[in-house]
Amino acid sequence: MRKAFLVMLAVVLTVAGFGCKRETKNPDEEERYTGPTIENHDVTTLYSDSAKLLIKLQAPVQQEFENGDGVFPDGFYVEFYDEDGTLESTLRGNYGKQDPRKSLYYARGNVVVDNLKKQEKLETEELYWDRNKAQIYTDKFVKITTPEEILTGKGLTAKQDMSRYSIKQVTGKFNFSEQ
Questions:
Q1: Is 9 helix (H, G, I), strand (E, B) or coil?
Q2: Architecture of the CATH domain 37-175
Q3: How far is Cα 65 from Cα 151, in angstroms, rounded to an integer?
Q4: Residue 68 CB neighbours (<10 A)
Q5: Rounded to 5, what percent of the chain is helix, strand, coil?
Q6: What does the pLDDT read at residue 171?
Q7: Distance between CA atoms of residues 108 and 129, nearest Å
Q8: CB 162 within 8 A of CB 138
Q9: C-alpha neighbours within 13 Å on the C-beta side of residue 35
Q10: pTM as predicted
Q11: Which sequence spans correspond to the domains of the chain?
């Protein structure tokens, strides 16, 4: 009886040993996850200096990746304030990307910058915003509408509030005049 029990125990352990065999995989050959590590909804980010609000960024969705980059897949909206706290200009785009190491933002798709003080509007399909330099720029087609004229061209460099700008290649200037 004891011999039969030992034989039976050996058979059970042998079967269990073969059943627990794991397949070892090379970690370098494994498919790595490349999607976002964090996803935030209804995001509002405030940038201030000496307790004065300078910039307000809002987005319905913000995704952050392992390398630190951020993406705004549903677009983003930015408000720029002057030293007195008055809303000066706005920026919006249908898609956005952020490189926090360089404080560089990228906007794509129906990008619009409105200078509320000068009543001027910039429209383009792609725009970069350098927060450190307080500048916006693009090499794409731009259209600037002012109360007196419409300017078109290719490429632009401007202050982030659109108070000063330079179009690289002007392709058209249309004046409004009432007669």
A1: helix
A2: Sandwich (2.60)
A3: 38
A4: 11
A5: 10, 55, 30
A6: 86
A7: 11
A8: no
A9: 5
A10: 0.77
A11: 37-175
Other CB atoms within a 10 A radius of the CB of residue 40 amount to: 15
Q: Quote the tokens at residue 139.
A: 């090499």
Beta-carbon contacts of 129 under 8 Å, excluding residues fewer than 6 positions away, are: 78, 91, 104, 105, 106, 107, 135, 136, 160
Which residues share a beta bridge with 103?
none
- Largest Cα–Cα distance of the chain, in whole Å? 118
Full pLDDT tens readout for the chain, 179 residues: 767 777 776 776 666 666 555 677 777 777 777 788 899 999 999 999 888 999 999 999 999 998 889 999 999 999 999 988 899 999 999 999 999 889 999 999 999 999 999 999 999 999 999 999 999 999 999 999 999 999 999 999 999 988 899 999 998 887 765 54
